[in-house]
Amino acid sequence: MTGQGKAIAHPNIALAKYWGKLDGPGNLPSVPSLSLTLDGMATTTQVTFEPDLREDTLRLDGQSASGRPRERVTELLDALWARSSMLGSVAQRPRARVESANDFPTASGLASSASAFAALAVAANEAAGAGLQVADLSDLARRISASSARSFFGGFVELAAGQHAEQQLAARSLAPTSHWSLRLIVAVTDEGQKSVGSTEGMLRTAATSPYYAAWVEAAPSLFDAVRKAVLARDFDALVGPVEQSALAMHATSIAAAPGIIYWNQATMAAIDRVRALRARGTPACFTIDAGPHVKVLTPEAHAAEVAAALQDVPGVLRTIAARPGEGARALVAAS
Ligand code: 2P0
Questions:
Q1: Are 158 and 227 in contact (CB under 8 A)?
Q2: Using CA atoms, how far apart are residues 50 and 48, in angstroms rounded to an integer?
């Protein structure tokens, strides 16, 4: 055990959405999802195991963190320790000092938990000398935050739906970063934190929305259509299922009790703008996560035009442009 490890991971954006969990333990997704890992934005995490520490400590962007964020770190470290046969003889896990920094604002609408838990798992694997492979790390992180399972891989990534009592479920690579030179333009429509977190949003939707069953039934065929279009690099075929996956996810949430409406006025205005762009022949399609920002996918050649059109929408505060990025990886830790 080296005692110290450092890793970097990027956020990912789902083109076919994960929204909903199977009943029972293990945080298994009820639907398959497909994502694009993004470059340009990153979480960097350093893990140091220290025998003298009484509990795990977490610093996020220089601030000490406790409560649920720190508990989730402990859950992942415990699970990693239990999984590694190389650590089996070390009964007691030493506590860790975890320092994590995002180089993008957490309110940017880009899932910071995805990059956070991917970077944490890779850094902890290094620090502990646990010797786990990427599929194991993806599975372990998926139990804490399902979207983080996808950030272990670059480019286009898929995560199957879980099956009841399944023991392991990792994401896997569908196509590398070089497969398709798309760009993702994020239209930021609010600088605040979202009102209903993803976990709470999907749990409430599953418990109360009359449309949840319809979403779970529809999601696999939308996933299949997105997957086929990605493999064929067929942008025209991608547009319909990507937008429908996002809209169906939001429709099921809007119908929850009380209804979860992630959108604001600018969200709707940006959707209109994407459809107007398309009507005049510009290839672009939108997706929206558990927040009010609109993320627009377009071929590289149209990225500047799409970004300018979104920047001009009333209520859009700024845009962020991202290209396909690599999966989580270890860095040389500082001594
Ligand atoms: C996704 N989201 O596929 C979907 C679309 C948000 C909207 O995965 O409960 O933070 O920790 O497993 O991974 C965000 O959910 O949820 C998410 P948990 P997570 O990207």
A1: yes
A2: 6
In the chain, which ranges are E strands?
Answer: 4-9, 12-16, 33-37, 43-49, 57-60, 63-65, 96-102, 156-159, 172-175, 182-188, 285-287, 294-299, 318-322, 329-331
The backbone torsions φ and ψ at residue 11, rounded to the nearest 5 degrees and listed phi first, read -70, 165
Could you tell me which residues are beta bridge partners of residue 173? Answer: 157
Q: Sketch out the chain's domains with CATH numbers.
A: 3-179 (3.30.230.10), 182-322 (3.30.70.890)
Least Cα distance to 110 among 334, 329, 332, 322 occurs for 322
Going by C-beta distance under 8 Å and a sequence separation of 6 or more, which residues neighbour residue 234?
228
Residue whose Cα lies nearest atom 11 of ligand 1: it is 145
Q: What distance in angstroms lies between residue 237's CA and the mean position of ligand 1's atoms?
A: 25
Q: State whether the beta carbon of 273 lies less than 6 angstroms from ligand 1.
A: no
Ligand 1 within 6 A of CB of 303: no
19 alpha carbon – ligand 1 mean position (Å)? 7
Torsion sign across C-alpha atoms 248, 167, 208, 253: negative
First and final CA of the chain: distance in angstroms?
14
Closest ligand 1 atom number to CA of residue 16: 3
DSSP reduced 3-state for 13: strand
Q: Which atom of ligand 1 is nearest to the CA of 17?
A: 3
Per-residue pLDDT reduced to its tens digit, 291-321: 999 999 999 999 999 999 999 999 999 999 9
Residues 264-284 pLDDT 10s? 999 999 999 999 999 999 999
CB of 246 shorter than 6 A to ligand 1: no
